[in-house]
Structures are given as structure tokens and as C-alpha cells.
Amino acid sequence: MLIALEGIDTAGKSTQLALLKEHYSDALFTKEPGGTPLGQPVRSLLLTEHDYGIRTEFLLFVADRAEHYHKVISPNKDSLIFSDRGVVSGIAYAHPSLDEAFVIASNRFALEGDFP
């Protein structure tokens, strides 16, 4: 089971995840972006000031999500997984100029149709 904690910055996601770790020591804890070896440099790129195009930034997030699903989520589907953010943030934070159907389809592609 995948449970993604979503919310704006400083909403308390990290605090809640720390509390959950105390009670669910056998659970897998991860984050998006950055929950894989590929995702760590992607996260660094996205968190630093940059002048990437809107599409470039979106595709970096989607690439991270696809790798995260492939390496972390899918192989552990039978486990309890808590994630600091996920697809809801990916859709909510996509630039409003991007076509909504494209944003959803891209995330569906990254998650192999397996929305949490």
C-alpha cells in the first residue's frame, strides 16, 4: 500500500513522516523527487535556482516519477510505503500553461497506469 503525504511546503509532511517512522518501523519511507539514485541529482537540479523551460522542468519531474515507480514503488507493492509527495503534487504543481490532459497522461505513463 502506497500512502503519499501531500501538501504545500512547510505544511508538516516531514514532521508527520518522522512520527510515522516511530510507529511503522517496517514500512518503506521515500520521497519525490529524489527517492532513487537517479532522482537525487534531479532533485538537486530542481531545488536550485534555474532557468529551465516549463516543459524541461515538468519532464524532469516525470522522469523522476517514472524511475521512482520502477525502482521503489513497483518492486515493493506488497509493503507499506510512505512517500513525501507523489503524483498529486506532480499534477498540482505543473505549470498552468501545460495541457491538463497531457500532464495527467504523462503521469499515467510514468506510473504505468498505477495511480496510488
Brief overview:
This protein has 116 residues and is mainly alpha-helical.
Descriptors:
116 residues, mainly alpha, globular, 5 helices, 3-stranded parallel beta sheet
Characterize the structure shown.
This protein is mainly α and 116 residues long. Helix content is 49%, strand content 10%. It is built from 5 helices and 3 strands; from the N terminus they run E-H-E-H-H-E-H-H. It has a 3-stranded parallel β-sheet, with helices on one face. It is globular.
Structural class: mainly alpha
The percent of residues in helical segments reads 40-55%
Helix and strand pattern: EHEHHEHH
Strand order of the largest sheet: 1-3-2
Mean pLDDT: 93
Cα radius of gyration in angstroms: 14 Å
Could you give the count of β-strands? 3
What overall geometry do the principal axes of the alpha carbons give? globular
Counting DSSP H or I runs of 4 or more residues, the number of helices is 5
How much of the sequence lies in strands comes to: 5-15%
Q: In terms of per-residue confidence, which ranges show pLDDT below 50 for 5 or more consecutive residues? A: none
Characterize the largest beta sheet: strand count, sense, and whether it forms a barrel.
3 strands, parallel
Distance between the amino and carboxyl termini = 8 Å
Task: Outline the secondary-structure elements.
Blueprint: E1 2-5, H1 13-23, E2 28-31, H2 39-47, H3 54-73, E3 81-84, H4 87-92, H5 100-110
Parallel strand pairs: 1-3, 2-3
